Amino acid sequence: MATPAPTSAPLIEKHTIGYVPPEDRHGKVRDLFTLWFGGNIAPLPIVTGALGVQLFHLNLVWGIVAILVGHLVGGVLMALHSAQGPQMGIPQMIQSRAQFGSLGALLVVLIAGVMYIGFFASNIVLAGKSLHGVVDSVPVPVGIVIGALGSGIIGIIGYRFIHVLNRIGTWVLGIGIVVGFGYILTHIQTDDFLTRGSFNLSGWLATVSLAALWQIAFAPYVSDYSRYLPADVKVSSTFWTTYLGSALGSSLSFVFGAVAVLATPVGMDTMDAVKLATGAIGPLMLVLFLLSVISHNALNLYGAVLSLITLVQTFAYRWIPTAKSRAVISIIVLLACCFAAVGASADFIGHFVDMVLVLLVVLVPWTAINLIDFYAIHKGKYDIQSIFQVDGGIYGRYNPQALLAYAIGIAVQIPFMNTPLYVGPVSAHINGADLSWLVGLLVTSPLYFWPGNRDSAYRRRMTGGKLAGSI
To answer: What is the set of domains in the chain, with CATH numbers?
Structure first.
């Protein structure tokens, strides 16, 4: 029986990491398309997409092919996480307790929190640079603070406001980037637009990996934005609206970055190239991207705060975090990130990309374990009460099977890694292409499935087969 949605939802979100009851469920599944389409048309994916031709020296055609392959593959994993939201009604990170145990999940939650704080700090740097590019009299540090405050207000208001802004942003940014493509392609300023660069296998694989990892980076918090949907929403509907929105929006931004740098002289900073390549409409494009990065960055702040609340609640299990708690922690994170970003080096974005590549090595096995556990073992049925118990309830404090598979999943990636900290021998042999994420997925999934399936069957027998999907 379908649960009727409430007639209205409060603008300021009252829930944090707790279960969202049926009476508080609201929204339409189509909102997931606009959230992930509009949220991915932003400066950071544009800068990242340009690396295919700037750093890996692909030509335009092979760069676009690599971008599409990466996003289409990585988007599958990201959208499968999103489809968990309506069934579980809780944030993604706290759900990890069902796989790793109440204490076993702490490492992954901490890593996710650090990564999204890094995303937030990087995006406010881009916001500061964008604002300075629009209004020269505004120094970059002042722009950073303004961008952080804008994202902070959106993040504190929460879930519903984030969706509203991205519904508007999808139309405005979608039209804007199409117009931008049209202008660049009719005002190309270089003679080697189609011939600069060439196909090389290592560069192509690296670009595919970069695009796939962009999608996988959303996995730890993507279902946070679907958990308010009614529980009777079809899994397939949640999957496809998320997948199409994220894959299409991010692909457009990645390709836009590649096109902009190829249409301008070699060696230009990506956002400077965008401004030059878009000519008369350049200032308007920068304004749109500024608004986009402020809006989208609220997701990073929101995800980071939920991760931090999850960490604290693990030990302060009697604490019931409220909207006020979320606001206070948001302000603390915002101030810390502003301080770090204002004092950061000029190559802050480059250092951030390096950090994300390192962190994803430890997040990829988590993705495999979470998806196998949800779809193949438990089939979406969990004891929500146990997830919030200090001892983990039927899931315990630690799950040895998950932790072992997780550790091996990290270890097998090492020879295939290419990060600032370490370049594995296999990666070095194929000229630096990083295939660690693919190896991590392929090894961790079957390694967790067999012992995890046996452990789940044992728990079902011990609880009389009653594993609830709600509380």
So the answer is: 27-353 (1.10.4160.10)
